[in-house]
Amino acid sequence: MLTPVLALIIWTLLVWLWMYARRLPAMQAAKIAPQEAKHPGTYADRMPSGARAVADNYNHLHEQPTLFYALAFYTHLAGNGDGLAVALAWGYVALRIAHSLVQNTINLVVARFVLFSLGTFVLMALAAKNVLAFL
User: Are 120 and 70 in contact (CB under 8 A)?
Assistant: First the structure.
């Protein structure tokens, strides 16, 4: 049950590398001084969309996935990490990776929304499975 957690953490760290591989050259090209980054967004109009998208995605990987981490740890500690729970966890990780790939490349909002929604439904299913096991 915890291996999907590790996988999503590793993915988040890879997106961090991706973000700076895109952001630092973009900042240099736009002649944005590092100190201007003290308030992110103030220079957003000077950054290319691709560099902004990866940074946005990195932030997104610190939002909803926090629910996944908590739910995965709860599932493991409660002894509910059976085959279905593990499959749901891997499904969520796969959907988050797919969401990142879409956002960081073609950035189609409808596709991102579908992937995000499917991931949310997977979290709901895992939460419901834990509630049923609790009852």
Answer: no
Distance CA 12, CA 2 (A): 16
Quote the CA–CA distance of 91 and 87 in Å, as a whole number: 6
Residues 6+ apart with CB under 8 A from 120: 64
Distance CA 63, CA 65 (A): 6
* Per-residue pLDDT at 120: 98
Confirm if 36 and 42 have CB atoms less than 8 A apart.
yes
0.90 surpassed by pTM: yes
- Contact between 43 and 26 under an 8 Å Cβ cutoff? The reply is no
Task: Compute φ and ψ for 19, nearest 5 degrees.
Answer: -60, -50
